[in-house]
Amino acid sequence: MASTVPVVTDIAYQDLLDDPYPIFRRLRELAPAVYVEPAKLTLVTRFDDITRIERDPATYSADNPASLVNKVMGPTFMRKDGAEHAIGRKAIEPSFRPATIKEHWAPQFTAIAEQLIDNLSVADSADLFSTLAAPMASLSLMAMIGFREMPWQTLAEWSQALIDGAGNYAADAEIERKAMQASADVDAAIDAVLEDHRSHPNPSILSSMVNADPPMPIDGIRANIKVIIGGGLNEPRDAILTLVLGLLENPAQKADVLARPELWPAALEEAVRWISPIGMYPRRVTRDVELSGTVLPEGLQIGLCVGAANRDGNRFAAPDRFDVTRPKQSHLAFGAGPHFCAGTWVSRLTVGKIVVPMLFDRLRNLRLHEETPPVVRGWVFRGPVSLPVRWDA
Ligand code: HEM
């Protein structure tokens, strides 16, 4: 007989932020979907269930009129289904083509990584969050979008303010003010370059949007650029740091990867499986449906915890272990179905082939800082918030 969604109340929100994995394991073992009171959301944590959900967008919609994303960023294709989603997705596709990535973006991203690692190489210790990963992710996204040059911190601040605004369910006035300010600043930055991109087509995302057939309307351009700023900066930043962390915590694996560079792509996949930069994203149930024996009522908001699914013991052996040599198996770190991450290939290249290999190549004997351990945080977004390291000068 089908059962209803169980409710869990005895979880501290802080524990979810500090280390969600024991909680994810408990939820996975309890039921296919569990209402977690402190998160105010029904969470789905099993690999097979999330895969099934992503194959059925008619029942599990990405379109959510109540979503704060719409309020803060405007009408975006990421929160649409079917034709409306496909038009927005097609409009940005030219910027993400494999040939464009290889010929246009790879040389630019290599130059950015070289500059940042040159700056590092004069010292013998640093926190890689602020000296490498955050500027790398910000400067490469700035170039891809087609913005004028600005300090990397500016784009990073906009990104954080938009993300905070989209998750501001407690209606904190200061968070809302900052999000609305960032939103206005992004609009102004777009206005400053849009005519140039229209008259001089180029591989940037803004150029793809404004020269698409049919061209994307201005409110769509603004909303979709905000989604890309909110969703294209933290994740590569966190993937860079997580990959470095996994290798530094496992010296034998590090030695293996450095001796056999063909392992880099597998190492990147393992890093984002192990600590998925996006741990959870939302869907809305459009009709009464049974998910593996649990009844989900029409209108229910659910959170797909890909960070939990990627540690599902029914899918991955020893799932909590970072292991670059595990047998190849698809994971859900880049999502699945129609909304599969548009930035997957560009991230695989930037993180797994450019910046992290260059870092290990250039900084000799890179190692964790003996006195200051790394700190990893978050569950909706998760990654190292500081990664202090040393190397031989
Ligand atoms: C390691 C890096 C990254 C990870 C782990 C990641 C993960 C994800 C995930 C899980 C989704 C699905 C979200 C949902 O369905 O609600 C997504 C969507 C998306 N990502 Fe990424 N992402 C990464 C990098 C990037 C980058 C660098 C960009 C842009 C330059 C980007 C652009 C997008 C876009 C536009 C979507 C929406 C796709 C759609 O709705 O059709 N991502 N990403």
Automatic annotation (TrEMBL):
One term of GO molecular function: oxidoreductase activity, acting on paired donors, with incorporation or reduction of molecular oxygen
UniProt similarity note: Belongs to the cytochrome P450 family.
Full protein name: Cytochrome P450
Organism of provenance: Bradyrhizobium uaiense
Entry-linked Gene3D superfamilies: Cytochrome P450
Organism placement in taxonomy: Bacteria, Pseudomonadati, Pseudomonadota, Alphaproteobacteria, Hyphomicrobiales
Hydrolase recorded as keyword: no
Keywords from the UniProt entry: Heme, Iron, Metal-binding, Monooxygenase, Oxidoreductase
Cofactor: heme
Alphabetized SUPFAM superfamilies for the sequence: Cytochrome P450
InterPro entries: Cyt_P450, Cyt_P450_B, Cyt_P450_CS, Cyt_P450_sf
Signal peptide (UniProt feature, chain positions): none
Superkingdom, taxonomy of origin: Bacteria
Pfam families: p450
